Amino acid sequence: MVLSSEKPMSPLAMMPLRGDEPIAGLSDTSVVDFWRFAMPDLKVNNTRGVFAEFLVHQAGGSVRRRVEWADHDVETDDGLRIEVKAGAYLQAWEQHRHSDIRFTGLRARTWTPTTGYSNEKSYNADVYVFAVQTAREHADYDPLDTTQWEFYVLPRPTLERLNTDTLNLASVRAAAGQPALFPDLGGRIRAADRPSAHTVVATRTT
């Protein structure tokens, strides 16, 4: 799809919200009230995924803000592109057993405002981080505790050799080896980006 060749209406750069900005027309209401409405529970799938991106953003030492429509989730200040996938055994709804953790959408179509979506799906990051919230009992679940998270890191060449859109947790573990805990995540990401650290994986699992 090719979009209009007319001059685009470019958005103005905006400062990040603080949370205390008032909402015009609503008394005693600020942006933080909207945040509480929109993201009250970090156990919800989409919110948990964004929080995992935030953890990776912090581990990578990046100051770049999240871009909703970007073809990757996190970018370091020196341009390293990182895709983040998140999973957990426990969900925000009632379960009869723990969730089987699968990571989907490893390949995706890119998008630009001038050409629209690409025709083909592709791997669009340099490094892939698979984040797992490890709590197995609701009473223990604390997404704000980084010790409850483990991270599996794979370089793009490994994903290309696996040639799949979806990986289950067992396949990620087989490809990545031991998980990184949060204090070591930044170093593990940088190690995966170095060609000498790339691991060739012959098994394709979907």
- Write out the strand line-up for the largest beta sheet, numbering strands in chain order: 1-2-6-7
Global shape:
globular
Summarize model confidence as the mean pLDDT: 89
Helix/strand-derived class? alpha+beta
Largest sheet: 4 strands, mixed
Number of strands: 8
Distance between the termini: 30 Å
Radius of gyration: 19 Å
Key phrases:
206 residues, alpha+beta, two-stranded antiparallel sheet, 5 helices, globular
Descriptive account of the structure:
The chain is α+β, with helices and mostly antiparallel strands. It has five helices and eight strands; from the N terminus they run ααβββββββαβαα. The protein has helices at residues 31-38, 45-59, 156-162, 169-176, 182-193, and strands at residues 74-75, 81-88, 102-103, 111-112, 116-117, 127-133, 149-155, 167-168. A four-stranded mixed β-sheet has the order 1-2-6-7, with helices on both faces. α2 packs across α5. The longest helix has 15 residues, at 45-59.
Short description:
This protein is α+β, with helices and mostly antiparallel strands.
List the helices and strands and how they pair.
Elements: H1 31-38, H2 45-59, E1 74-75, E2 81-88, E3 102-103, E4 111-112, E5 116-117, E6 127-133, E7 149-155, H3 156-162, E8 167-168, H4 169-176, H5 182-193
Parallel strand pairs: 2-6
Antiparallel strand pairs: 1-2, 3-8, 4-5, 6-7
Helix pairs in contact: 2-5
